[in-house]
Structures are given as C-alpha cells and as structure tokens.
Amino acid sequence: MTTLTEENYIKAIYHLGKHGTENVSTNAIAQEMDTKASSVTDMVKKLAEKDLVNYKKYQGVSLTQTGVLTAVNIVRKHRLWEVFLVNKLNFSWDEVHDVAEQLEHIKSPKLIDELDAFLDFPTHDPHGDPIPDKDGHFSKLDKVKLSKVAVNTTCTCVGVDDSSSDFLKYLDKHNIALGSKIKVMATEPFDESITILINGVHLSVSKHVSNNLFVRAN
Amino acid sequence: MTTLTEENYIKAIYHLGKHGTENVSTNAIAQEMDTKASSVTDMVKKLAEKDLVNYKKYQGVSLTQTGVLTAVNIVRKHRLWEVFLVNKLNFSWDEVHDVAEQLEHIKSPKLIDELDAFLDFPTHDPHGDPIPDKDGHFSKLDKVKLSKVAVNTTCTCVGVDDSSSDFLKYLDKHNIALGSKIKVMATEPFDESITILINGVHLSVSKHVSNNLFVRAN
DNA sequence: AATAATTTTTAGATAACTCTAAAAATTATT
DNA sequence: AATAATTTTTAGAGTTATCTAAAAATTATT
Ligand SMILES: [Mn+2]
Ligand SMILES: [Mn+2]
Ligand SMILES: [Mn+2]
Ligand SMILES: [Mn+2]
C-alpha cells in the first residue's frame, strides 16, 4: 500500500521524467515538491525498497513498471475528478486542481470506474490533458502549440500547457476556452507576440500565451 | 486547521456522547477508534489545547462549541458523499461507508455545497440518518424502532440503527429497504422475534432486526 | 590535472501519532 | 473504611516524514 506522501513523490517523478521513463534528479524532485533534497533522498530510498523506483546513488531516479502503473492510476483519478468538478459541480477550470490533488488519493476499487462511467468515459480533462483508461492507455490527440501555427490558419483550442490559475483566468477573461476557434492574423518578430481572431474579436497575445495554448489544425 | 486524525477523534467523541454534549470516557473513545487509551489521552490533550474539547483529567471529554461545529461538518460531508455514491454511482448502501470515511476529510469550501445542490439538498443519507444543512441544522424525523410497533399496525421503514455491512445485506436479501411498507403480524414473547408482512411476504425476524430498524407510523 | 562550484547524501534533530509498561487516580467490593 | 479492581495518565520508546548542517561525490572551470 502506498501512502499519500509516497503517491505524491511518484507523481512528481512521473511528471518530471517524461512519464517516469527518464532519470530525474534529486533537486528537481525537491523543487517540484517544495521540499528539501535530503528529504527526497530519504523517500527515494524508501520507494526503491518498495520497488516503485530505480535508484542508484547520485544517478537520479526513474519509475519501475509498478511505479508507472501507480502514477498513471493517480493521474487517471486526478483528471476524472477534475472533469466531475467542472461538468457536474460548476467548478471553473482554474478552481479544480487543488481539490483534485486531494481526491486523487481516495482509495476505492469501485469508485473511480463508476465515476468514469457516470461521466461517460471522458478522454480529456478540463485542461485538455488525456485521461488514461482503466488499463492505463492514453488516447493520443495530436496537438500543437499555437506559436507553431502559420499566419492565416484557423485552428481549434484543445488544451493548455500552463494550467496555473492566473493563466486560466486570463483565458477566461478573453473568452478563450477548449473548442474555441482561433485564426492567426499576424506575428510580431520583435517580441514574438501574435495577433489572433477569436469570437470575431482581434486580440494580441504574448509569446507566453501562444506557447502555452495547444491547438488542433482544422 | 484540523488533521485527518484529529477529525476522526472529534467524530468519535461526537457520536459517543449524544452529539458531543455528554462526557465521554477515554476507554470508550479508545474502543471506538480501535486504539489505546494512552493514545487517546495524548490526543485529547492536544484537542483541548486547540479548544475543540473540554477536558479535565480523569473526568472524560465533551466537545466545545467549535468542536461540535467541526463534527457536524464532517457528518454532513460523510452523509452527502454516501448519497452521492448510492444515487449517482450505483453503490449499494452496504458499500458506501468506508469510501465516505475517506471522502469526509476532503477540504474544499466549494465542493460540499455544490455537491449538496447537485444531489438536490437531500435531508437523509442512504441509511436514513439526517444530513445537517450548511448551518448545521438537522431535519428531525420522528422515527421509532420496529420493535415498538403494535401488532396489526402498518408502518414505513425509514432508517437503520445498525449499518454494518452484514445487517444491510440481510435486509437487501429480504427486500427490506427505506420506504418499504411493513405490517407487524405477531410477536413471540419467548425470544422477542416478530412476524412481519413485507411486499406480500410473511417473514419472521429476530429481536436484533426489530431493534435496529427505524420506522414511521403510517 | 588540480581546484572550485554544485549536487547529493549522511548524520542528527524535531514533530505528529502510536505503542507498551508502570504509576496514579477513581470506582467497586468487602 | 480498607482493600481490590478498573480506569486513566505518565514515562519512555518506535515510526514516518520532515528539517539543518556537514560530509562526500559529481560536474564545471581554470
Ligand atoms: Mn490538475
Ligand atoms: Mn488537469
Ligand atoms: Mn457511514
Ligand atoms: Mn450513513
């Protein structure tokens, strides 16, 4: 059985190292989890003991097969709860993350699969991130950063890379949501800002925005 | 801020001492929580320090006003989650308790009130126990134990006193559910068992059953 | 290749919660 | 009222997860 703390470490390693496959440094984990490197070392030893991570002193850690499975299951729970909060409980997409951080640790063999069915087996969460199915398989959606889209092309917003509350609120304010049609009107070389057409309105957005919005070509 | 452990102690004191008003003994808490009396003493001191309980050495504990408020809020969360699990996620009434024990500790100012609205402000949980509203007020429902009902009277099942999985499954097996009409046909003095008519079927039930089924007169 | 800077680990301490065993207080029995 | 039984508290120690400070290993710079 994994503790809440162990699960959070597993999740951090999963997210930092390309789905847990790459080696992740002690410091990177410490930063991600807002803790000290010495604490990370302690926990990583414990996780290695439990065969959840591969660890060699000074060489960083990666997830074992069991570790990846554990991580994917937590991600599944997190994202399903986010869908529930937005679709059923009137949460906005900038409010769900903290609550999902708690709900993702609830242990029940039945709960998540029933929730999945109740939500009609969603494939993506409110931020456009894919939800793994019961067996851990992700539905691949080929998305591209808005900054890569050519001028005069229209595309559809399908996700965000930055899901900080501030960024999401900014998008809300300018009526940019998943499903929004965006036409790239112009790009400015000097500051890499771009002008887009959204809901009939012209809007100039910074490099940060275009680099953190995922779109699909139409 | 209350920890998960503190919340569980508060809840135990609330349930053992008539809504936290009566004094509860250290041993009673230890038994309820499946822990040692010495651990209870430690925690009770901590709770007294936080002004959640009234405590005098060797005299037992009761909840303060803040303690009652905390307890009622946990009970509210527990019962609302139980309704959610039964009404929305196809859980049966004998499966919900353990999951609700986990969910009741989720902290979110918005979550519970939205859940309450989503469930259409239920007044009772799947076991017939009242759900306090936002302000901690319980809707009183005058219920009586089936064992108190006179012969030849018909009544409606509105709750259970024993909500152990075994007892609930027994009720399921004999199609006794909240809302079921029950007519008391006969009482046997020698073992205090009674014969009831339910769904057109005659059934003899033990003293335990009649003492743990709440009914409302019709 | 030697030295400096950085990263990582170890050592030792602390906080929250738990336990066992012994001491103290209360309650029951004679 | 004295003694016995029970309950409750204290003392001391273990576990998990955290921290600071110092030591060791790795990586970068000269
Ligand atoms: Mn999230
Ligand atoms: Mn998300
Ligand atoms: Mn319950
Ligand atoms: Mn209940």
UniProtKB/TrEMBL annotation, chains A, B:
<dbReference type="GO" id="GO:0046914">
    <property type="term" value="F:transition metal ion binding"/>
</dbReference>
<dbReference type="InterPro" id="IPR022687">
    <property type="entry name" value="HTH_DTXR"/>
</dbReference>
<keyword id="KW-0804">Transcription</keyword>
<dbReference type="InterPro" id="IPR038157">
    <property type="entry name" value="FeoA_core_dom"/>
</dbReference>
<comment type="similarity">
    <text>Belongs to the DtxR/MntR family.</text>
</comment>
<dbReference type="Pfam" id="PF04023">
    <property type="entry name" value="FeoA"/>
</dbReference>
<dbReference type="InterPro" id="IPR007167">
    <property type="entry name" value="Fe-transptr_FeoA-like"/>
</dbReference>
<dbReference type="InterPro" id="IPR036388">
    <property type="entry name" value="WH-like_DNA-bd_sf"/>
</dbReference>
<dbReference type="Pfam" id="PF01325">
    <property type="entry name" value="Fe_dep_repress"/>
</dbReference>
<dbReference type="GO" id="GO:0005737">
    <property type="term" value="C:cytoplasm"/>
</dbReference>
<keyword id="KW-0805">Transcription regulation</keyword>
<dbReference type="InterPro" id="IPR022689">
    <property type="entry name" value="Iron_dep_repressor"/>
</dbReference>
<comment type="subunit">
    <text>Homodimer.</text>
</comment>
<dbReference type="InterPro" id="IPR036421">
    <property type="entry name" value="Fe_dep_repressor_sf"/>
</dbReference>
<keyword id="KW-0963">Cytoplasm</keyword>
<dbReference type="GO" id="GO:0046983">
    <property type="term" value="F:protein dimerization activity"/>
</dbReference>
<dbReference type="InterPro" id="IPR001367">
    <property type="entry name" value="Fe_dep_repressor"/>
</dbReference>
<comment type="function">
    <text>In the presence of manganese, represses expression of mntH and mntS. Up-regulates expression of mntP.</text>
</comment>
<keyword id="KW-0678">Repressor</keyword>
<dbReference type="GO" id="GO:0003677">
    <property type="term" value="F:DNA binding"/>
</dbReference>
<keyword id="KW-0464">Manganese</keyword>
<dbReference type="InterPro" id="IPR036390">
    <property type="entry name" value="WH_DNA-bd_sf"/>
</dbReference>
<dbReference type="Pfam" id="PF02742">
    <property type="entry name" value="Fe_dep_repr_C"/>
</dbReference>
<feature type="domain" description="HTH dtxR-type">
    <location>
        <begin position="1"/>
        <end position="64"/>
    </location>
</feature>
<dbReference type="InterPro" id="IPR050536">
    <property type="entry name" value="DtxR_MntR_Metal-Reg"/>
</dbReference>
<protein>
    <recommendedName>
        <fullName>Transcriptional regulator MntR</fullName>
    </recommendedName>
</protein>
<keyword id="KW-0010">Activator</keyword>
<dbReference type="GO" id="GO:0003700">
    <property type="term" value="F:DNA-binding transcription factor activity"/>
</dbReference>
<keyword id="KW-0238">DNA-binding</keyword>
